[in-house]
Amino acid sequence: xxxxxxxxxxxxxxxxxxxxxxxxxxxxxxxxxxxxxxxxxxxxxxxxxxxxxxxxxxxxxxxxxxxxxxxxxxxxxxxxxxxxxxxxxxxxxxxxxxxxxxxxxxxxxxxxxxxxxxxxxxxxxxxxxxxxxxxxxxxxxxxxxxxxxxxxxxxxxxxxxxxxxxxxxxxxxxxxxxxxxxxxxxxxxxxxxxxxxxxxxxxxxxxxxxxxxxxxxxxxxxxxxxxxxxxxxxxxxxxxxxxxxxxxxxxxxxxxxxxxxxxxxxxxxxxxxxxxxxxxxxxxxxxxxxxxxxxxxxxxxxxxxxxxxxxxxxxxxxxxxxxxxxxxxxxxxxxxxxxxxxxxxxxxxxxxxxxxxxxxxxxxxxxxxxxxxxxxxxxxxxxxxxxxxxxxxxxxxxxxxxxxxxxxxxxxxxxxxxxxxxxxxxxxxxxxxxxxxxxxxxxxxxxxxxxxxxxxxxx
Length: 459
Known about the structure:
30% of the residues lie in helices and 23% in strands. It is built from 12 helices and 21 strands.
């Protein structure tokens, strides 16, 4: 399977997944684990002996620039393919993908800042190299930290205490002032302000700048990027003030081609808004409270010391710290129908990554636990929110199991509380670093028209 998956990806930009989990450039174990999703989500087993023939058929079709879910095709053929050959079934299911317009849009990407989110975005952009992907990470803008700045930047990208080692090679090119990651030449630009850079001097044009510093959050501040030659759009990886806050899967249709400054909202807002949308669409949300149990972040102190924020000055590794969160109120920026219906609070806890949101909701209609979980499981697999919502019912799951989750939020079905009345409590895990970074990449693909259409198309 692996050579065929790589072949259709490199030659035709066909990205293959199993129940939404990409299997491009994945190990044998990773591919086998992706097949286990069938048992959890579909309550049925799925073998590589069923998906391999699907791949074999796909390579003979005239496909290009599409995302194909071979898990869904294999299960669909098992359930609905009686009397048909696999060739005929797959061809019919992918009819809209064959001989489609294969024109692609290329986009230069610049990372402004290279912190936790910036480095994960770099990894994700580099990971996509090798097929016909059109996003090109061209430069990273930072302030110079010293004579060995390049080496330290390379080391931070190469090794990560939470997310593990970089999958590939990274070398430093002092002459070009660049990092070369898996063959990608990434310029390191030293600057103290966004409007002091001329990106065209580096061969960069019409670029999307992803500001992951959080220094500027309003239109006035972020517009500094647009004053630089070679920039067309700016994306903020934090809640924006007075600009559109976008949660992919929920309100990306609000993005207009004329928008030049956009926010990807916060990690918590991205984790809970798709699930709240799913619940509101079916049951109606009258009101509720969102409590987040959040991993500590870099804005807290390691030991007790002065901090401009209340309580955040206390040692992050030794305390649970109650603090404020605007995530609950921010939901209404992407989902206006929930305006004024949610309250929220947060507790920072001594873990470095992966957080949990507890949604305590009063619904418009009655619901019991099994019905609610079945609905959420279905939404995780067969809805437009598939990339945002994941689902688990593992009795052993703890926070570290969700490091590296690409979903915005993962529902813990075993923790769901619903007694047939109009109240429910839903527990949502989320990798507040990597899962959020995946949402930013999805938004970037949408903004640059480089997202691959997914097949098979489901009702």
